[in-house]
Design goal:
two-stranded antiparallel sheet, Beta-Lactamase, five-stranded mixed sheet, alpha+beta, about 20% strand, elongated
Amino acid sequence: MSMEGGMTTLDLDNWQALRRHLIDHADDIVRDKALLEALGLQPKSRHLIDFGPAALSRLEARALKDFDVRRQLEMTAKANFDAQSQTHGLCLALMEARNHSDLARRLQEEARNRFGLVAATLSLEDTAPVPLGWKTLDYGGVDYIIGETGLSLLGPDAVCRVLFDDDVKRVKSAAVLRIALWREGRPGLVAFGSSDYDGFSPEMGAELVAFVARVVERVADRWPVLS
């Protein structure tokens, strides 16, 4: 504040000075109905200020924003819970397989029915007989597709004709996971194909599909591949 011609001039750029001025004149402000209305406040009693339309609209906007965030969190949690439940159901179906061919068939059917995927396949490198219904990869094919040190590959780059045959035309993204079967650790792949470009992406976590791959390994180990 400054003094000019005997009058006090308020420095509007100085918030602390303005704040002190408002506090010093709090009674006058409460009695000024036009000012309170412009600020979106209404005097309700001597010790209570009621929120008016402007203040309520701000509160409503904040509440809607908080509601949207909470709803998004709830939807994400529900989607994760549903995905886990469907994954567990798929694994239980795989555990009931009677042989390698039945295992491949069940994986395909469950992936389509539970997750709406285009295809789900099992494959092995051609270093020994390959079960009926499984894809055959050339020697070194697993490393070629997924990388020498890779455990999983998610996204459009994982789409490969040898894994999906004619279904590859409808597959826009895929999840491919490395498996190793029997004592010799024979290399193979579990692959899931989606018709959605965002069905599988490199940014996604691979925990659930990796869990399915581990179940496939355990179930497939029940039976040898006879030459």
